[in-house]
Amino acid sequence: MSTETTMQAWQYQAPGPLQSTLKLNPSAPRPSPSSLTPGQVLIKPIAASLNPADFKVQELGLIARAISSFPKTAGMDLSGTVQSVGPNVTTLRAGDTVVGRVNPFKAPGSLAQLTVADTAGLVRLPEGIDPVEAAGLPTGALTALQTIAPHVQEGRGDRVLINGATGGVGIFSVQVAKLLGCRVTATASTGRGVELAKELGADTVIDYRQTDVVAHLKGKGEEYDLIVDNVGDGPGDLFSSSRTYLGAGKPYVFAGGRMTMRSVFNLITAAVVPTALGGVKGRLVTFVAKDSAEDLERLLKWKAEGKLRIVVDSTFEFKDAKVAFEHLKAGGVKGKVIVKASPDQ
């Protein structure tokens, strides 16, 4: 039970697999208004959405310990109500409903009764948008916008390949590309995955369970202006084999996903081998999502106008956050996994 100085929070006790390290701490230190530094606000979460990065960084062992302190509260994305604001905060005030991200290295996570966030990662939630649903927007949609918008010309009809179109990022990648006027080819799995990719607007969908994606792309004879890879190791040779389907100098943006030794080797090798010696014609771009109120406001405007859909795979109660993480980690998720805030606040 929480008190005036403690609260409930889902915390990683140490680096390692989430199954053994993620635990509900009923007496985690409770942040107070007096602890806020310039640019920070105190938030009472309404809901949080989960991202693979929430547990992947945690499972990096010594690297995780070097970049984070433990115990560490889990979660980045959230919607919530501002309880108080720190010095020099003028864009938000107590009582505002906000959506955004907390910095996973500088502040407590979103899976807690209270958390602290920088205003740079937050915006007010427009009226008419469900705050629980909105919690599914920040990191996934920001990743989609920031991996596509800088590399295409809006309205030109650029050809974009989205590898992994129905996960927590892919659901937004397809929609953002279409909103920017691109022609979209997407990869998805048999059944609901293919159906969802089409619902989201993909012009062409490749069923990766029924089709050899690389062989299909080579045989199709079409050159893409941009490839966004949300998968990483499926297929592991998507970049190294892209000589025939990614235009000269065009970006292959690695947005995240699973990595194996083989896929890492293929990426690095393909990136350094000269084109004249059989290397790829495109260029490898690695990516990490950046906080941007401007980008969040653009995405929320599309949402408010009915142009952008937040696909929710499943919603869990706060007490079941660990089950929610295990569901996400198991794979096959279609859309966002959301955890509601603790009712005991």
Automatic annotation (TrEMBL):
Pfam families: ADH_N (PF08240), ADH_zinc_N_2 (PF13602). One of its GO terms (molecular function) is oxidoreductase activity. GO terms for cellular component: mitochondrion. CDD domains: MDR1 (cd08267). Residues 1-36 are annotated as: Disordered. Residues 16-339 form the Enoyl reductase (ER) domain. PANTHER family: ALCOHOL DEHYDROGENASE RELATED, RETICULON-4-INTERACTING PROTEIN 1, MITOCHONDRIAL. This is Enoyl reductase (ER) domain-containing protein.
